[in-house]
Design brief:
The chain is mainly α and 152 residues long. The chain has five helices and two strands. α1 runs antiparallel to α3, α1 runs parallel beside α4 and α2 runs parallel beside α3.
């Protein structure tokens, strides 16, 4: 089961690298696309902090410098991998108590949080690509099947 989540984390990193590369070729990047990508970077850190029982060091709509996106993405990936490496299989079923941005308390199991991170990322990646289409000559292929073909 841990291998499954390691693979999904690697896939998410792969898609975000492609998204950054695509945005770098764009004639313009709409502010909403920048905001959404910043949100992806921030929420990974927020959820990791929640799962690790640490104070979050960024807000969910944090503003990062575009020039730092790749470095922040790589840092997030290493942080998430490090978190996953420390987990035992039974930890995937452990409930995490946290507060959302409105101060409402929740309890969610780790595997559901990890699944949410991937689904949430894909949702916003699709929004970003839609916003970027008028400014791109080629759209990034962010499909899971392409990832599986390329990693062989």
């Amino acid at each position: 089961m841990k291998d499954y989540f390691f693979n999904l984390l690697a896939f998410d990193h792969w898609t975000n690298v492609r998204l950054i590369q695509s945005m770098q070729t764009a004639t313009d990047i709409p502010q909403r696309a920048k905001d959404l990508f910043n949100h992806l970077l921030a929420t990974t850190r927020v959820w990791r902090s929640r799962m690790a029982g640490e104070m979050q060091d960024v807000e969910v709509w944090e503003k990062f410098d575009e020039q730092e996106w790749q470095e922040l993405l790589d840092q997030n990936y290493q942080l998430m991998k490090g978190f996953m490496e420390q987990l035992q299989v039974e930890d995937l079923h452990r409930k995490i108590r946290y507060y959302n941005t409105k101060g409402v308390a929740y309890e969610t199991i780790v595997s559901d949080i990890l699944t949410h991170l991937i689904v949430h990322s894909g949702y916003h990646q699709g929004q970003i690509v839609s916003l970027m289409k008028p400014f791109l000559s080629t759209y990034p292929d962010l499909m899971y099947i392409t990832y599986t073909r390329e990693k062989k």
